[in-house]
Amino acid sequence: xxxxxxxxPQDLLSNGPTDLWDAAQVEIFRGPQSTxxxxxxxxxxxHIRTEEPSFDWRLKGQATVASFNTTQxxxxxxxxxxxxxxxxxxSAEKRDSDGFIYNITRRAPENPVNSISLRGKLLWxxxxxxxxxxxxxxxxxxTKGGYRFTYADxxxxxxxxxxxxxxxxxxxxxxxxxxxxxxxxxxLGGGFSLTAL
Length: 197
Fold this sequence. Notes:
Blueprint: E1 2-3, E2 6-7, H1 10-15, E3 23-30, H2 34-37, E4 44-50, E5 58-66, E6 70-82, E7 86-97, E8 102-103, E9 108-109, E10 113-124, E11 132-145, E12 164-165, E13 173-189, E14 192-196
Parallel strand pairs: 1-4, 8-12
Antiparallel strand pairs: 1-2, 3-4, 5-6, 6-7, 7-10, 8-9, 10-11, 11-13, 13-14
Subcellular location: Cell outer membrane
Region (Disordered): 152-176
GO biological process, one term: iron ion transport
């Protein structure tokens, strides 16, 4: 999986942000993609592009309340910094949840989630160099809580509706991830361009 051109490590993929609320585009490449994407793309690749900075002011938000005491709040927006040459976009998301598995020994949620995701993007299109674009993207993600995949006792008659865990050992997963990309593009004309990521 790639977000804004950068590969997402496996640890972050299994415990990291999975919401697409601020995504602009999702592409699925089927079959071997190793030539362009590297050794980890033998079966294909998923490319996610987040919303780009724009040269007009934009703002959006989202609030979600769900089962298992789940709350999620997100906001994103941006606009021009220097005329039609430099624009920015920032987004933030906070999610809290008790998780859906209850620990009957410790009498506490087995896989709670408390996470925050922050992203900042800059787009530079200098007037003195027509056809050139530079994008700088920075993403910080932090989550603390139970491991996403945990044991649940399937011998319970109501396992599907009320999954439980009886382990006395605390289950924890803490992830801190920072990711940055610099995307440089220059249109040569005639449908050709140069790209460096």
